[in-house]
Queue: 4 jobs
Job 1
Amino acid sequence: MCGILAVFGCIDNSQAKRSRIIELSRRLKHRGPDWSGLHCHGNCYLAHQRLAIVDPASGDQPLYNEDKTVVVTVNGEIYNHKQLRENLKSHQFRTGSDCEVIAHLYEEHGEEFVDMLDGMFSFVLLDTRDQSFIAARDAIGITPLYMGWGLDGSIWFASEMKALSDDCERFISFPPGHIYSSKQGELRRWYNPPWFLEQTPSASYDPIVLRKAFEKAVVKRLMTDVPFGVLLSGGLDSSLVAAVACRYLADSEAACQWGSQLHTFCIGLEKSPDLKAAREVAEYLGTRHHEFHFTVQEGIDALEEVIYHTETFDVTTIRASTPMFLMSRKIKSLGVKMVLSGEGSDEIFGGYLYFHKAPNKEEFHQETCQKIKALHLYDCLRANKSTSAWGVEARVPFLDKEFINIAMNIDPEWKMIRPGRIEKWLLRNAFDDDQKPYLPKHILYRQKEQFSDGVGYSWIDGLKDHANSQVTDSMLSNASFVYPENTPTTKEAYYYRTIFEKFFPKNAARSTVPGGPSVACSTAKAVEWDAEWSKNPDPSGRAALGIHTAAYEEAGDAENGNVLSGSKKVREGIVEKAAAVV
């Protein structure tokens, strides 16, 4: 991941303004510690902080066309850049960077080229010939981008809110799958897949097609010139990423540089579910496994940094971001700069435990669509910002455009959870190969465990206890007066909000964070699927009462999410997950 900052239409184009742009760009240096670049043209500025993954030697940014009339600053990876170059043979490329194709595609196709890009990206492009500019963000919002407006009429773009919040009167999270054109003066959607309309699809389920599409998505993300690995929690999604990467790594260009043994990484509290499961998967796959431990106190001590970097006060995001933030620091210390991760599968296949209560396939499908559309505010934000805080790039093969289109075109009846059919059954079944197994059966059919739960159940309980000690009953009862917008309803949420407001006090900042009731990561609409859930609005997977094998006790200990009486207790021990259930 890199950090980009672009400013257009400043009244002041003095040396002082240039110095200010450099100062603000440095707030993104954690994202790109390898190089800093700045291009100035009149009252337009394009700054870049580079994390060098592809072509470290010559791919510094900003990037240009042949005569430098087109300038682009990019955060992300373009996986099909070699194929695109084949159609741009009349153009002269200056670097081996995958992102340079953007400048030349613009020359050939104008603004109508973004859908040609296969990758994760946010970019800003300046055409100095007419002073026009465009900005675009990838289909799902894997890479972050913010857009702001200054009182002097300037328009700003930045990878993180902290680089523009002080200088913009208003700013927003740039919507995924959109492009902004200065010529048209508005945002428009460039990504328009069939599933976006949320109409129930009817295609039949073909496990081989689904498997091959995912394998292709993993293989294309092995494009790297630096050491890499896989984040392995031992759950289904990360285990499949690791299994596929192991199977195809030896034939990849990356293996020529870094060897054919895959590195895997996991973090958790001592004796947590994830550590045990990840260790078993790593042994089965033969990876070089790195296991990191943290304590509840170490996590609590990191909360302020986590909130500063993730730029959110969403409870679920902070719970899961903290161990990921701590792990990323360890990973970077080993010299690794890129990791594959398993985000996105639960949204596509209805993997969260609350999907057990979906009343019909139509509502099931609509919920998955809504979850994918909101990924940029939750899991994508977490995965990107928690890792980039330490200069590590996370790639997410489940959010491959082609794979999403195939998976979201399947009749959702196949995704519905039925007796004898566990959540994400069609994905598990696609990789259930007795002849050449990808994973052990009991891992392939392990129950869904949210990352913030899987690192150790006492992690969430410890967070609630800490919030209890910091937030009084009186503070929570007056929360609607202190925070009338997106009012926190629990002491834990209130505590995170106070930290967030310290770093980002503007109304525009708090408006970038989503809100509303949720159980086990559901949307507000899905809370209506079970009347009991409204009494226990906690985003932890354990709030899915009667579904999770280590669910919160339903009586006596229930706090209705308000943590006014100490933390919930979890049933003693970790219940072993069932093996094959098909």
Job 2
Amino acid sequence: MAQLPPGIRFITSFSRDQWYRAFIFSLTFLLYASFHLSRKPISIVKGELHKHCAASHEVELNSYKEYAGQIQSVKKPSNVSQCGWEPFDKNNYKQLLGALDYSFLCAYAVGMYLSGLIGERLPIRYYLTVGMLASGLFTAMFGLGYFCNIHNLWFYIMAQIANGLVQTTGWPSVVTCIGNWFGKGRRGLIMGIWNSHTSVGNILGSLIAAHWVSTCWGLSFVVPGVIIAVMGIVCFLFLIEHPKDISCSCTLSSTSKAFLNGASQFRVLMPNLNTKETSKPQDPEMQHLLTDNENSSTSLNSSTVVMGEGRHRTAAISFLGALRIPGVIEFSLCLLFAKLVSYTFLFWLPLYITNVEHLDAKRAGDLSTLFDVGGIFGGILAGLISDRLEKRASTCGTMLLLAAPTLYMFSAVSKMGLEATIVMLLVSGALVNGPYALITTAVSADLGTHKSLKGNARALSTVTAIIDGTGSVGAALGPLLAGLISPSGWNNVFYMLMMADACALLFLLRLIQKELRCNADHTLFKEH
């Protein structure tokens, strides 16, 4: 019998379940990358909405007055402005651009709390599809202001608000889906790699928007809007919410007696026959807060998991019930400040590079992608370290501790030349986005599948929405504060970001202490 070709041998070396998991991993990666792709254009286009033209404007004004009588019949092209796009061509342009960011992010923060509760009660595939189609519509709507020659500030603000609301359908949906398909064994590494969709989406969004920003900035919004709408159709055609929907086997953690996140339709409760184990000291708030060796605690306002098809009959957890899960409040408040820093860079970095390096909008947008490249490595590194140490809070805390002085160095070094800016963009991106990526993925999934929930798979969406919704409050405040502070100098913006990192670390101190205490108790127990 002839030997199988290498490609066929490679395909058959993986099981059907593994191929489906790889497919869901890739599909959800692309789906959420398209969300971030559609959010990025506003930061790239800012340099085009307002141009620094004070000197040239004075010369052109005198020339205009001199030849006014000769050109009265000639009308200025409606889509061209010497100082940008009205109404952003005024001296208060930073406040107006900050208002656009604030409108989107406030709507996103408010909508996120509702999105998780709604998402638990609707099929993920339908919910996500509608959200992506609507996101495409409102993203393109902002760009249509260019083609329709719209100069009303409220048009752009309303487009941002509507887009912020519908974009909240994305994160709880994809995290719930990926949590259904993957267990806790290597969740930090898997989700660290998977969460690079954020940076990949930002990079693609920057490159696409930068391609048209100087010639036709309306396309910088329309093209990403079309892309996310097309991906919404792909979602409707191919997304599989749960392994059971196609009779796939479910992922079981190697140290757990129960299937995770509803991946099995029943829970095997085994009596603890080890008398030494029962005498082990347990902190009720740290019973498998972030690791796999916990004992079950009491149910948090959710119904008991039932056999068989019980996944479809399990009641959704309440908002207060989700808040009582140990660690949810601390990580939510930590993410508020971590996301404040990350989104300030997301929305203001290209403009900062334009001002400091004196580059045009396109080159500044291209250079800003290096921050997201660093974020990819930071997210993967954070997941890998936290898996190895089994300490999510300590990993986040270490990176936050290093991020604050790095931001100070960035503000000083970036004025020394382009090469220094490139290096600091990569390092800052890794340290800023590492904790943010870890909390929004692996930590959210850990807490959403906490054993106190007794296998309630529907709680993950609410827990994810609470954590990311609280973080989105910081995401709304960061760009707003940057817009208000930047007129007094960019150094003050960096001081604000360093204080935010310190506050994020402060909220993790209790969990870090408990992780270290738990590790010490575990070591002492093994010695005895």
Job 3
Amino acid sequence: MAARSRVVISGFVVLMSLALLSGSICSAEEESKESVVDHVLTLDHSNFSEIVGKHEFIVVEFYAPWCGHCKSLAPEYEKAASVLSSHDPAIVLAKVDANEEANKELATQFGVQGFPTLKILRNGGKLSQEYKGPREAEGIVSYLKKQVGPASAEIKSAEDASSLIDEKKITLIGLFPVLSGEEFENFTALAEKLRSDYDFGHTVDAKFIPKGDSSISKPTLRLLKPFDELFVDSQDFHVDAMEKFIAESGVPTVTLFNQDPSNHPFLVKFFDSPDAKAMLFLNFSTDKFDDFKKNYNDVAVLYKGKGLNFLLGDLEASKGAFQYFGLSEDQAPVILVQTSDSQKYLKGNVEADQIAPWLKEYMDGKLKPYVKSDPIPEVNNEPVKVVVRDSIQDVVFNSGKNVLIEFYAPWCGHCKKLAPILDEVAVSFENDADVIIAKFDATTNDVPSEVFDVQGFPTLYFRSASGTVVPYEGDRTKDDFIEFIQKNRDTNAKPVSVKSEESAAKSESPRDEL
């Protein structure tokens, strides 16, 4: 059976990567199944458990041969593996081709939703953590060396503090009268759990820490951050309470989306949050930028903790987001709210003094959702019919036809490969008035998410004339599509005999299937 590949997308990956993604597809080359290619170990479904089980610490990259980001990472990953192989103890880097059909169960097991995904596996694979470090060799080496040391570094001097604390990142410091007791044990457990997300340190002398009260007399967790009030303390050392404290205090009141790579970890948190998201995009060099920033920040403070997170994006850095949301630069300054159920609310060419009243209307439930749609095509006479959001009701839901619809992205290589096959399928049904083959650009039109679950490209669904909706998950050949449509079409609609050249050949000359 052929591999049913597609580009998998998730919130932040889409927004940060759309402008960079390549539409080209590279065929996978065969690799030996238990071998070391230079310094990177190659794993697959047959040797994964055995090899991972031998290591207390191993890093595994899940990749796809066609993925442009994976190709960019490959030489950096190899350089890092070479350096880390001489570390004491050696740090092993490995890779798995997650595009191979036999390895897809592994990818599912480790929650792989996009490529490349890197996992840190500890204790023979019993503990899995996301790799959240840099993607260039020097940064990979530095990050992983910290990951194999103690989860929290003891700070015995101002120099120790200076080497640990990065003013552009969040750092968590445990301040203790003595390095023992329940609070210290809970702090150490938390550091081990969250070590891939944050840098941790601990000390018995608060004067070494550059921010905050130095006369601490009881156990205190201090969160240092490069935004808002710069530090905040908590003295509740229950693990759940510490996690909540970090989650709430470690997010900026307004997340900046600009060219500064140090902001990327905060962007990841913003887009991964289940809360609704308010996003204001404008040119940061505009004369009115300070007015926009102040008004927007005031509103963000007002609604903090009320289920709405805020982002301020520069036009130049946000082009991928603009493409994803179907916005154009002539709409800027533009404010957009996206809810957890993917509804959108939008106001283009907004003025600074309109931000607060518009968001109040949103919070009061007085705004109508914005639905993104391309214009309905005036001419639609190609074999595969173009469907947009404004026409999907008529063509798919109300037409009384059996419709196979593809949700695609113009940059998606798998979609480009599928296009001529769907054309052939559509031509095969051109004399059948009860069948429509359609395509829907999911990057410029909002997908009706209450009906179709589109998590990657291409995604295909079939809706029968009587209204039954099923996903298409079969092989992507002309004959497989035709067989699926004939099997699932509404029995009330009279089927038309459709025979492809390949089917005819089979009937005339039976042969073994490989």
Job 4
Amino acid sequence: MRESLQKSQTITDNVVTILGSFDHRLSALETAMRPTQIRTHSIRKAHENIDKTLKAAEIILSHFDQYRQAEAKILKGPHEDLENYLEAIAKLRSNIQFFGSKNNFKNSDGVVSHASSLLNKAISKLQDEFNQLLLSYSKPVEPERLFDCLPNSMRPSSGSPGHEGDHNGKSNHHSESHNSIADAVVYTPPALIPPRILPLLHDLAQQMIEAGHRPQLLTMYRKVCDQIFEGFDSLAEQCFAEVTTNSVSMLLSFGEAIAKSKRSPEKLFVLLDMYEIMQELHSEIETLFKGKACAAIRDAAMALTKRLAQTAQETFGDFEEAVEKDATKTAVTDGTVHPLTSYVINYVKFLFDYRSTLKQLFQEFEGGTDSSQLATVTMRIMQALQINLDGKSKQYKDPALTHLFLMNNIHYIVRSVRRSEAKDLLGDDWVQRHRRIVQQHANQYKRNAWAKILQCLSIQGLASSGGGSSNAGGDGGAGSSSGASRALVKERFKTFNVMFEELHQKQSQWTVPDSELRESLRLAVAEVLMPAYRSFVKRFGPLVESGKNPQKYIKYTAEDLDRMLGEFFEGKNMNETKR
């Protein structure tokens, strides 16, 4: 048995040695295989990157193919196959957009530049084709063909020379016949442009407008008229005037209707938009509607421009007056920023989007050469707003809330001005002056809201008048309650608790919407209240704590007060403050 056991032990040791050798060999094999695994992983990642690169390359190559196809069609010109030409332009635009978004593509700038140049050439050819189609199909109608537009009963007889009528009765008979069927006749106007050509002209016009060639398109209509009546300038002007007067007059009458409508502050921006457009169109109007025959159109356009400027100027005055006299009863019970304030500030911000237009407008009426008029108007509007806010602040019964309301609103005005272009116009002096006004109202709020409760924490009036006093010992000096009446101290603590709870309940419902202003106001209150409370508790607390139910009088620690101050000006409702 001993020998068997020894043999078993020997075999076990041999097996352990063999297994240890295997473990060592496996570890060595893993070490040897690790570079192969790393290379395999790298090869797999390389294959993935190659696949992605190939796909990206295929997309880029497909766009290059589209570009070459579009280029070939564009070089042929639009005359033979306009539909494919327009399709090629669309593909070219798509290519410009594609390569323009590929910032990491080395040659994208060059491709975009070349494609944009080709697009400009394509649009130029379209413009020529548009002009050619108009010249080819907008031919004047022969006078004799105009009679074909009339019903048979109204056409002159072929034997009447010059179509002058017969003074022996034919003319009268024709007139009677005309009157009897006037309501029933149907006129057939001539087709000035073949119907099949109109869609082509529409597509060409659309492409030119999308390419930013709208002015050239309008100058083109005038050019066609001039070419048709070449050598007859007065006739060309008269024809163009008669063709366009009704449409232009209808358009201008729309602007006149707006300019003459009842003024309101909201319409000012519409008026400024229209005034700006009319100013921009002035040179084009002068070019398109040249000559004596179109003088009425030019005069009407100029009159509309002046009427729009005048109405806009008057609307400014109306707005200033409306702001000062605004009597809205919108209740702002929490002292936050009034809707009128945000409305006026947003209105002024929008005005600065029209700064250049307003400069033109003021120069036209007041002859100014700088931005002083806009600054003056803006200051008057701000002044009118502050006058109105002063009036609204008097609606509050609590003086503290009055000053909180004015602090909030003027701070909103100052902050908005500092973050807008109005700061450069109104100047740093205006901003600093109104920041001081904000601080003054904050100080007035503290004085009105916290003066009484701070009196509860003063030592005045706490001296004992007789034997009812008790000394808690203390350390003397500031920590001593020597000479203080326990009853008076208890009464002071009770009064403080009631007043602070009332302030907490009320002012937690008030709002200071700006987070920085809210925190700075809380800090300003804490800097006054907390040292006074700590000093009072330290000095007179032992006097109360030595009696019965001290927690009834010293209800709050300094940390409790600080936490509750953090709930002030959050605009909470009544139920939240009670909880």
